[in-house]
Amino acid sequence: MTNSQKKIIFHSIFGLLLSINALHAQTAKEIEIFNWFDSTIRKENLDINNGVLYTNPYRTIDDNNLYFLGDKFEKGNLTYNGQIYYDNALKYDVYRDILILNPAGTSELIGVSLNTEKVDSFTISNRNFVKIHKEQYNLPEFLTGYYETAKFSDNFIFYIKHSKSIQKKVKDDGAYYYFKDNNHFYLDYKKNLYPINSKNDLINLFPEQKKQINEFYLMNRSIRKSDLNQFMKNLMKYINTSLSNQAK
User: Fold this and answer.
1) Nearest Cα to 240, choosing from 204, 217, 213?
2) Cβ neighbour number for residue 11 with a 10 Å cutoff
3) In the prediction, which pLDDT does 157 show?
4) Residue 13: which pLDDT band, with cuts at 50, 70 and 90?
5) Nearest Cα to 35, choosing from 90, 91, 106, 87?
6) Using CA atoms, how far apart are residues 169 and 178, in angstroms rounded to an integer?
7) CA-wise closest residue to 152 among 246, 244, 216
8) Does residue 16 contact residue 24 with C-beta atoms inside 8 Å?
9) CA–CA separation, 144 and 124 (whole Å)
10) By mean pLDDT, which of 39-53, 67-81, 177-191 is the weakest?
11) Which residue from 116, 81, 82, 87 is spatially nearest to 102, judged by alpha carbons?
């Protein structure tokens, strides 16, 4: 019996026990038990370690890089091939849309490129990502990939497609590459997906919220300039709350 089969059987039995004993709310205890099982069969033998060795061919200057939140492995969770793996060392190559795992017990210099087809979701630094297929939405420019998600309700889900553009610079000692954030924003509103490229896109979608949206932009100019991703999340939360209050 393979480790993957053992893990599936264990998860099934444990899920049944949780149901019988009504322990599903004890998330910390659940994670502890899953980690105990993964350690028992040796983490280095788990399916998530069976990937291609990750390499980064791009030489950069200073702290500039192609990663999400920097060139450092962060603790996170992962749903891979239908199974949940907790407390993994992960790093996200935004430019090539690759999730990288630092296998347990190995040097932090070693990374494995996880099979995109098998990764369903992951978290890094408490930021949630899901893999979305372009066939899920009738939007020509929408592409399959990993999207950061913020779900405010079943009918109001915000997505950020993190991406980076690349620029080559030649210096006396060789070629360097510079990466610049080039993110895209989408809103799943009532099961339809809308690209959010400007304030006008939101006003056209929610004309009755025009005053509130304009006020939010005016009052939050500093965070919009310093952290556009957080600004957009805050704005979406604000609009959703406003819509909910309006419906009461």
Assistant:
1) 213
2) 15
3) 97
4) very low
5) 87
6) 7
7) 244
8) no
9) 20
10) 39-53
11) 87
Task: Tell me the C-alpha distance between 189 and 15, whole Å.
Answer: 32
The C-alpha angle 42, 47, 81, rounded to 5 degrees, equals: 135
Residue extents of the structural domains in the chain = 42-196, 198-248
Beta bridge partners of 195: 186
Which tens digit of pLDDT belongs to each residue from 210-223?
Answer: 999 999 999 999 99
**Residue 138: how many CA atoms within 13 Å on its side-chain side?**
2
137-191 pLDDT, tens digit each: 988 889 999 999 999 999 999 999 999 999 999 988 889 999 999 999 999 999 9
Q: Strand ranges (DSSP E) for the chain?
A: 52-53, 74-80, 83-93, 98-102, 112-113, 119-124, 127-132, 145-153, 156-161, 164-171, 174-181, 184-189, 192-195
Neighbours of 111 (CB within 10 A): 25
Q: Say which residue the tokens 């610049």 belong to.
A: 180
CB 179 within 8 A of CB 188: no
Exposed / middle / buried, residue 170 (Cβ in 10 Å: 0-12, 13-18, 19+): exposed
Cβ atoms of 56 and 72 within 8 Å: the answer is no
